[in-house]
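Please, structure for the following, as tokens.
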Amino acid sequence: MSAPLLRVTGLKKHFPVHRGLPSRVVGQVYAVDGVSFDIARGETLCLVGESGCGKSTVAKTVMRLLAPTAGTVALDGVDISRMGEAQLRAHRRQMQIVFQDPYSSLNPYLSAGAIVSEPLTNFELASGQELEQRVASLFERVGLRVDAVKKYPHEFSGGQRQRLGIARALAVKPSLIVADEPVSALDVSVQAQVLNLLIDLQEEFGLAYLFVSHDLAVVEHIGHRVAVMYLGRIVELAGNADLFGAALHPYSEALLAAAPVPDPELRRERMVLQGDVPSPMAPPPGCHFHTRCPYARERCRTETPPLQEVKPAHWVACHLRPVGGPFGQLTR
């Protein structure tokens, strides 16, 4: 079995909270609290969960836009988590990012052609006529007119801007693209077009995606595997079919039960969670989900469940799903 393109092990990102004059640290926000996963070449791993669970922080830390507090990020077998900027530059070409907001992620003072050509110029990959040809080719590949190279971002629609962001990410021929909610700001019809474009590009170039989303319909369409996050931790990691067909963690079950059903004649049994998400400054001991879990036991309140493989390629962090144990209906 070949080594994964990306291997994240025990990743943590904590943000200090400052108060008072003079400023002093009074606590930590545990945004990411021990996350581990692999992504193979040509694979899409989707990170899902409620707003504030740490999905985007994982994405930015993997990209080294944020420095990790602990843990490692290995890209193609090389640990980049502690590299300085000079060392990291050599690995930047292998990983690119597509941001959530197509309006604020593009420089309004640069033309579309300059935005896409900037990575090629920075890495000295092309110049002159070759640069123009490569930019034109990228525009065509993402479905933009070549004569749009002279336009500025405000002259494009939201979907066109996101295509421009994808072209910029593709320019340096990366192996990994981190997509941070890339279609959440788009209309539904445009979402489908951009998702299908990403799938086509993956098949053509063998790209791996770390795809961050809160939309389960989008995840089901584009993902190969899904990692469900809750309060900074991964609570379930499984293939698309396994997760959507038979989720094993109570939080995953609640997420799926809350998703709307497209057929108005069908009704889905709702699993209503009690209470609010705890503060990431003071996460509860044991299983972070036990304060809202209808099945919680005393062990859940004191002992942190490890993420373990309870079925082939299906990992769950739940004391109620023991390795090799029964997988019947949980009881309250």
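The chain has a mean pLDDT of 90. The radius of gyration is 21 Å.
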